[in-house]
Write a structure and sequence with these properties.
The complex is a heterodimer of chains A (329) and B (256).
Chain A: H1 29-35, H2 37-58, E1 62-63, E2 66-67, E3 69-72, E4 75-78, E5 82-85, H3 87-95, H4 102-118, H5 122-127, H6 130-144, H7 156-171, H8 181-191, H9 197-210, H10 214-219, H11 221-231, E6 235-239, H12 249-253, H13 262-268, H14 281-285, E7 291-295, H15 296-315, H16 321-328
Helix pairs in contact in A: 1-2, 2-8, 3-7, 6-9, 7-11
Chain B: H1 3-39, H2 53-59, H3 65-69, E1 76-77, E2 89-90, H4 105-109, E3 129-132, H5 138-141, H6 147-151, E4 159-164, E5 173-178, H7 188-192, E6 200-203, H8 205-208, H9 232-235
Antiparallel strand pairs in B: 1-2, 3-6, 4-5
The chains are: A mainly alpha (329), B alpha+beta (256).
């Protein structure tokens, strides 16, 4: 980005003084698998979550004669004694001024703590079944090169989040839970199909032909809720500043490209926006291995060491990477 | 203030107004959807211990743990095609009734309390109320049936069989009667009814039950201070005597 108009014959140089290399899909199967590593893992987690719920409900999959996981993604019981609950659904019910049993409150706290550790929107890209639909829509959109038919701010989801809680308080029912395509889809897979697929078709058409990442990236209030959780969570995509050539291959594959603010990332040492879904797409395509999963605490520490080293070398008049970059510019 | 910053401010205000407008329009549509969905058919037959409809709809998290915990597969979750509020549990007694497990596993599985843990005995649950269609009930037609009475799990209390004279010199009829103070609405009678379409059906009490109102006095019962045979001393031990009658007492005060 910074040095995009350098001399024609020479290869483009990144801000770190290294040539910009585009991402090339490797020919070997093992190379491909390495790129798709997290994609494959995500699909495995998404589908096995569905299968586990379904198997416990219909094929009596059990552990010590207790169902492995009974219920659905709104609320469930793991191994017959660990309650789990969707914290956003619980929040909506509380907004209707209903009191709840401790069981579901504990469940919501357990789930909240889990996403607090692994990243808020890990829910979105690793668990939520609607992700399968929106990813498919995204793929088709890319293949057919479809342009957006409308514009909407990605911040609109926070309006949806506020609206959900206000409407819950006014109407006396959990406002998003009652129309949530996620809950409806998941419930109907486990407890019998109705016409919920029509809503999914709607999301697919909206995402594929009207607005890129329309549902997951602009509207879903649950995603907005987990974005707020994700702001504070520990597992992050670390950003190794010295290796990045600003080739922006990562932003091409990212479903939330606004989180890949490279300037902010290099100052923080990691992708700090809560809207990052920790899907790991960027890790696979990064030709320089700049992006990796890491824990926030370590990254902050590493980054501080990096900054300190830079400071020290500046004092001793040795050229640093940043100085080299400035010189190149 | 120069013109560019004025313009920027105007654009900002415009954007805020537009977003508020989108939120308000969307919110209104959304709210009407919720009203339609949650209030459309308030007469579903719910699992035992279900709170009254509005509270139940608010508290139920639609997880289906009651459904999976039911050993008889009685319960289903309403899907988008059903006429019942979406995602909430209900059952159709003619298909599978509630067999009234004494440990009430569905209520215990409920994580939110939409099926209230205050229900201690399954006999105290009120899932619905059995109602007899006396035009098509075999017993009421004069045949000997009384299957509902014999199948009833709160036998002898919820459904009793009464003698009913028919005509002189004919056999008496044995007719089943449902008593709402004991009927749990489990629907075993409806499942057992041998007619093509059940002549005894479990429905939401609100659909059939009337309310007498407080101003009526049953003068022939010893429970009211305005009956002529009022014997409060003799009855004090079983029947609570009303301290003050709210009825039309002034009719008897002689002021007319």
């Amino acid at each position: 980005m910074a040095n995009s108009d350098s001399i024609n014959d020479q290869p483009k140089m990144g801000p770190n003084g290294k040539p910009v290399r585009p991402f090339v899909m490797p020919d070997s199967i093992s190379g491909k698998l390495n790129v798709w590593k997290y994609l494959i893992l995500r699909r495995f987690v998404q589908i096995s979550t569905l299968v586990l719920f379904f198997g416990s409900a219909h094929w009596a999959w059990n552990y010590n004669e207790l169902p492995i996981i009974s219920g659905n993604l709104s609320s469930s019981m793991l191994f017959g004694f660990i309650p789990l609950a969707d914290p956003f659904a619980v929040l909506q019910i509380l907004a209707t001024q209903q009191s709840l049993l401790t069981e579901v409150l504990i469940g919501a706290l357990i789930v909240l703590a889990f996403y607090f550790i692994v990243g808020g929107r890990v829910w979105c890209s690793w668990v939520c079944p609607v992700n399968l639909i929106s990813d498919l829509a995204g793929k088709i959109r890319k293949k057919l090169n479809i342009q957006n038919a409308m514009q909407l701010s990605r911040k609109f989801r926070y309006i949806m989040l506020a609206l959900t809680l206000v409407l819950s308080a006014i109407t006396g029912v959990a406002a998003f839970e009652w129309i949530s395509p996620i809950s409806i889809f998941h419930r109907e897979i486990i407890f019998g199909l109705g016409s919920g697929w029509a809503i999914l078709l709607g999301i697919f058409i909206f995402d594929a032909f009207i607005l890129k990442d329309g549902w997951c990236g602009h509207l879903c209030p649950l995603g907005a809720f987990y974005s707020i959780v994700g702001k504070f969570s520990f597992l992050r995509i670390s950003f190794d500043t010295p290796t990045c050539t600003h080739c922006v291959e990562c932003t091409k594959v990212c479903p939330e490209p606004q989180v890949l603010d490279l300037k902010l990332a290099s100052s923080k040492g990691y992708i700090s926006a809560g809207e990052c879904t920790n899907c790991g797409r960027c890790i696979g395509v990064c030709p320089e291995n700049t992006l990796q999963f890491d824990l926030k605490l370590w990254m902050t520490q590493n980054n501080q060491q990096h900054l300190q080293a830079e400071e020290a070398s500046r004092n001793s008049n040795n050229p640093t990477e940043t100085d080299l970059r400035r010189k190149a510019a | 203030m120069n013109s560019t910053s004025l313009k920027a401010r105007r654009n900002f205000l415009k954007k805020v107004t537009q977003n508020t407008a989108i939120a308000a329009t969307g919110g209104l549509v959304w709210a009407s959807l919720l009203q339609k969905e949650a209030r459309a058919t308030p007469y579903a037959i719910r699992p035992p211990g279900a709170l009254k409809e509005d509270d139940f709809n608010a508290k139920c998290i639609k997880c289906g743990q009651c459904v999976t915990s039911c050993p008889y597969d009685t319960l289903t979750l309403a899907n988008t095609s059903d006429q019942i509020p979406i995602g909430t549990p209900y059952f159709i007694p003619r298909n599978v009734p509630c067999y009234m497990c004494t440990d009430i596993p569905c209520m215990k599985a409920c994580p939110t309390g939409a099926l209230t843990p205050e229900l201690e005995k399954i006999e105290d649950s009120r899932m619905g109320l059995a109602v007899i269609d006396i035009e098509n009930c075999l017993s009421w037609l004069g045949l000997r049936c009384e299957i509902c009475h014999r199948e009833c799990p709160v036998k002898g209390t919820a459904i009793t069989v009464e003698h009913h004279p028919r005509k002189l010199s004919d056999h008496a009829m044995f007719i089943p009667l449902v008593h709402s103070d004991a009927c749990t609405g489990c629907g075993i009678c409806e499942k057992a009814c041998p007619t093509d379409e059940a002549a005894i059906k479990v429905v939401h009490p609100k659909l059939v039950q009337g309310v007498v109102g407080e101003h009526y006095r049953l003068g022939w019962k010893y429970d009211s201070s305005i009956t002529q045979q009022y014997e409060p001393e003799a009855l004090k031990k079983d029947v609570p005597v009303e301290a003050e009658s709210t009825g039309l007492d002034w009719l008897n005060t002689g002021e007319l």
